[in-house]
Amino acid sequence: MHLSELWIYPIKSLGGIPLQQSLVQRRGLQYDRRWMLVDDSGEFMTQRELPAMALLGTKVDADVLTVFAKNDPAQFVQIPLEIRPDEGPKVMVQVWSNRCAARLLPAAINEWFSDRLGKSLRLVWMPETTHRAADGRYAPKGQYVSFADGFPFLIIGQEALNDLNTRLAEPLPMNRFRPNLVFTGGTPFAEDNWTDFTIGEVSFKAVKRCARCPITTTDQETALRAQEPLKTLATFRRFGNKIYFGQNVVWMGEAENATIRIQDAVTVPINQ
User: Fold this and answer.
1) End-to-end CA separation in angstroms for the chain
2) Bridge pairing between strands 242-251 and 202-211
């Protein structure tokens, strides 16, 4: 098995960026979900509430993160990649049941997002000093996460998507599921049963299958919603009251800033 795709989503629920290699950090891949849009009360916003977030793409250029309208790239805003931990007003934000500290970006940036998405929004950034704990029911003690839903990484096998697409009238791309890590080889849904594994020389642990939400039904190019893939997934990937696709993962390394690359071997111990 080999790593075939590598993705970051710098701003939670906006468009992703494909990479050839990435630094691996405790809270996720470098720059992954370190920014997030919140409403005036500090509650996190995603495509669940605002499907049009899918229409905003992202790219990293030198020292800035550029966000642009996919249907009109001339409409864009730029955000510094490097921000001091004490820069900007400190605000408390809500991500599911977690309340954590973040830093507020300037008013002009917030106005750009509010205008594009038709709702009063603020962009916040997570400094290194904020340690939001990963879900302790599944993740080892001491693991923490960015603004991702619950865990630092999501891995999906290409064979899982291939299997799903044989059951759909119209095949869907992997971007419906917003993984960080995609691998080729193995059998469909092999990742369901993983615990410890490596990518190249970097150690990871799969901790919980990923329960899927209506974001998977949103076309990432048009923001239109339909019934698939949840309708079909429910026929063979429902366990209890949840529908699962992919595995949530934490990094088990000690040294900061390990690197993984496309085509790195993905290795699972044979006793798993």
Assistant:
1) 15
2) antiparallel
